[in-house]
Amino acid sequence: MQSFDLIVIGTGSAGKTVAETVREAGKSVAIIDKLPFGGTCSQRGCDPKKVLVGAAEIVARSAQLTGRGITNTATINWADLIQFKKTFTDSIPEKTEKKFTDQGIQLFHGAATFLSATTIRVGDEELSANHIVIATGQRPQTLNIPGEELLIDSTRFMELAELPNEIVTVGGGYIAFEFAHIAARAGAKVTILHQGKQPLEGFDADLVDLLVKAMRAIGIFIVLEAKVTEVEKTPARLMVHYEHGGESYSAEADLVVHAAGRVADVAEMALDAAGVAIGKKGVMVNEYLQSASNPAVYACGDVADKGLPLTPLASYEGSIVAHNILNGNQRTYTNDPVPTTVFTGPPLASIGLTEEQARQQGLPVKVMFQETADWYVSRRINEPITGFKTLVDAETDQIVGAHLLGSGSEDVINLFAMAMKHKIPAKALGAMLFAYPTHASDINSMLP
Ligand SMILES: Cc1cc2nc3c(=O)[nH]c(=O)nc-3n(C[C@H](O)[C@H](O)[C@H](O)COP(=O)(O)OP(=O)(O)OC[C@H]3O[C@@H](n4cnc5c(N)ncnc54)[C@H](O)[C@@H]3O)c2cc1C
Ligand SMILES: NC(=O)c1ccc[n+]([C@@H]2O[C@H](COP(=O)([O-])OP(=O)(O)OC[C@H]3O[C@@H](n4cnc5c(N)ncnc54)[C@H](O)[C@@H]3O)[C@@H](O)[C@H]2O)c1
């Protein structure tokens, strides 16, 4: 059996951060992955997705300006786009492995299974370590409906050689909205079937309403409170059966995409053997991101039951775990607001409290909510549906929430994040001199 100071399971943003930091401090480190090295974000998530979004943006922008100086709406050649996407993703495993090897980290391929509190099996190898970090991310949740195996997940969507004509998404969160927008801009007819009253749960309801309006305006069909009961294969196509308002319906499709949420990827790890407790949202950890039931084990990233499953948080949590392994438990996870964007056209970006959450907390907030299609930044590109909402504590003048819908919002939200993190008062941010005309210069008009 080989022994290490640290074994990391998972080579994504979280696992990489821990392995590299601990190795840099001179410890012996092994890292394991069951898939090609590099994790979700760079190969199957954020980065390839945003390449596809880049093309969808061109279609959107040219469609908006057709007849206003642009003569033709751009069209997407799906096969070429996927080839372009591959130029980002194909090299990731080799580059990742080379970097780890150069750093002196030992690599193991295969699915890791716990044998005891501090030992792991991967393939035919048995490994032991003083500390083991679980950074295994998430996988699509099981839906328990007949025909579930007919759905494809986001990974396979981004590998499609051809884009089918009619697509249904089961679920109405990030993946549904982003992929529906890409597919619609590439010419497909898309239906989103979402089980709840509000899609994109967690985002401010007024801004989500505006985004839904924008998505419907480009032909995306969105059904709320739809309970998908079965996916059936017919001789030529697929049929998605669902219930809505007490009636039964069926939507025909060439492709059905799983966009109904992801859960901690722990099923095959035999966590029982290590005495590692798992809850509904993933591996249960304390404020130091250490398993409460097995102190040799830490968890970080999407698989841990802390925070949202987003890349910046995975790296942040990885850095906390590395610090605590090297120095004893010192750094704690803080639940600071994190900016996030749904990369639709237009994008929806958000940080902090929604209006509903602020009201529930009884905060004395000043709320500014406005549709901004007649503002210069929107008119210049003829973007038809845009808006913002800001929430400022009336007593402290601190910004407690910002929600932006419109081109550029994915970057502008970071200025709100900086102001909130460093406690810049709303008046001071609103009085900043920003380059004009930019998306950021609109901040001056978004704060009381
Ligand atoms: C389609 C999509 C788009 C996204 N877009 C964004 C975005 O725009 N912005 C954003 O912030 N976030 C986005 N995310 C979320 C983001 O990708 C994740 O939050 C992030 O990648 C999590 O990193 P991680 O290190 O926790 O896990 P991962 O990167 O998922 O790494 C976990 C690794 O563990 C491996 N593994 C699992 N089980 C085992 C086992 N038993 N043995 C060995 N290895 C194992 C897996 O193969 C995987 O490589 C997106 C996610 C998806 C699916
Ligand atoms: N831009 C980004 O940052 C980005 C993009 C993609 C994914 N992600 C991350 O990946 C995670 C997973 O994405 P996702 O879109 O799969 O999940 P999600 O949690 O964002 O949305 C899934 C939605 O589907 C609904 N749903 C669940 N079961 C259903 C069913 N049977 N029928 C109909 N609707 C159902 C849920 O109510 C939920 O609102 C996200 O939580 C996010 O953190 C982030």
Descriptive notes:
- The chain has 448 residues and is α/β, with parallel strands linked by helices.
- The chain has three domains: 204 residues, FAD/NAD(P)-binding domain, CATH 3.50.50.60; 113 residues, 3-Layer(bba) Sandwich (FAD/NAD(P)-binding domain); 107 residues, FAD/NAD-linked reductase, C-terminal dimerisation domain (Enolase-like, domain 1, 2-Layer Sandwich), CATH 3.30.390.30.
- Helix content is 31%, strand content 26%.
- It contains 14 helices and 23 strands.
- Strands 1, 2, 3, 4, 5, 6 and 18 form a seven-stranded mixed beta sheet that branches. Strands 19-20-23-22-21 form a five-stranded antiparallel beta sheet, with helices on both faces. Strands 10-9-8-14 form a four-stranded parallel beta sheet.
- β11 and β12 form a beta hairpin.
- The protein is globular.
- It starts with a strand and ends in an 18-residue tail after the last helix.
- The model has no long low-confidence stretch (mean pLDDT 97).
- The structure holds flavin-adenine dinucleotide and nicotinamide-adenine-dinucleotide.
- The site of nicotinamide-adenine-dinucleotide has 26 residues, from α7 and β19.
- This is NAD(P)/FAD-dependent oxidoreductase.
- Its cofactor is FAD.
- Belongs to the class-I pyridine nucleotide-disulfide oxidoreductase family.
- Pfam families: Pyr_redox_2, Pyr_redox_dim.
- Keywords: FAD, Flavoprotein, NAD, Nucleotide-binding.
Low-confidence stretches: none
| Oligomer type | single chain
- Determine the structural class based on helices, strands and strand pairing: alpha/beta
Helical stretch count?
14
The kinds of small molecule bound in this structure are: flavin-adenine dinucleotide, nicotinamide-adenine-dinucleotide
CATH topology of the largest domain: FAD/NAD(P)-binding domain
Helix content: 25-40%
Gap from first CA to last CA: 64 Å
Q: How many structural domains are formed by the residues? A: 3
Q: Name the beta content range.
A: 25-35%
Q: Spell out the CATH superfamily of the largest domain.
A: FAD/NAD(P)-binding domain
Task: Give the rounded overall mean pLDDT.
Answer: 97
Radius of gyration: 23 Å
Number of strands: 23
CATH class of the largest domain: Alpha Beta
